[in-house]
Amino acid sequence: MNGDTEPAPLAARWMRYADTDLSLMHNALDDDGPPGEVCFHAQQAIEKALKALLASAGTEVPFTHNLPVLREIVPDPLRPDVDLVRLERLYELESQSRYPGDWLAPTDEEAAWASELADSVVQSVRDGLA
Predict the structure, then answer these.
(1) Assigned domain for 110 exists
(2) What is the pLDDT of residues 64-98, one digit of tens each?
(3) What is the pLDDT of residues 26-63, one digit of tens each?
(4) Considering the entire predicted model, what is its pTM?
(5) In a domain, 1, yes or no
(6) Number of helices (H) and strands (E), helices first, in the chain?
(7) What does the alpha-carbon distance between residue 53 and residue 50 come to, in Å, rounded to a whole number?
(8) Second label for 95, Cα 20 to 30 Å away, from 81, 86, 105, 107?
(9) Domains: count for the chain
(10) 75 in a structural domain
(11) Is residue 86 part of a domain?
């Protein structure tokens, strides 16, 4: 196997992507950016962190953005403790912030808890990979 497919290097690559999304999320927050952008990058950061856990366990990383599904397939000892209702809502907000439809745009309040959730989950994953 090359370094791109071995568990530890692949997990580290996923975490670099998660960190980039966290940075973009914080930039949007600091600049009073649209709540949809904050929610999008929060969802992306969590998705990539969960994929880092899957990679670290040698589990195939699926092509999905579904946060609850990703969390459930992470092996139990590595699975982060996270509010599943908010995880599901963030997954919905990400889609709603990217595609036109008959739904309300994410609110400032949703952006605030989404950013806190992303910070918490990514830190939990980082701690689990250490």
Answers:
(1) yes
(2) 999 999 999 999 999 999 999 999 999 998 877 77
(3) 999 999 999 999 999 999 999 999 999 999 999 999 99
(4) 0.92
(5) no
(6) 5, 0
(7) 5
(8) 81
(9) 1
(10) yes
(11) yes
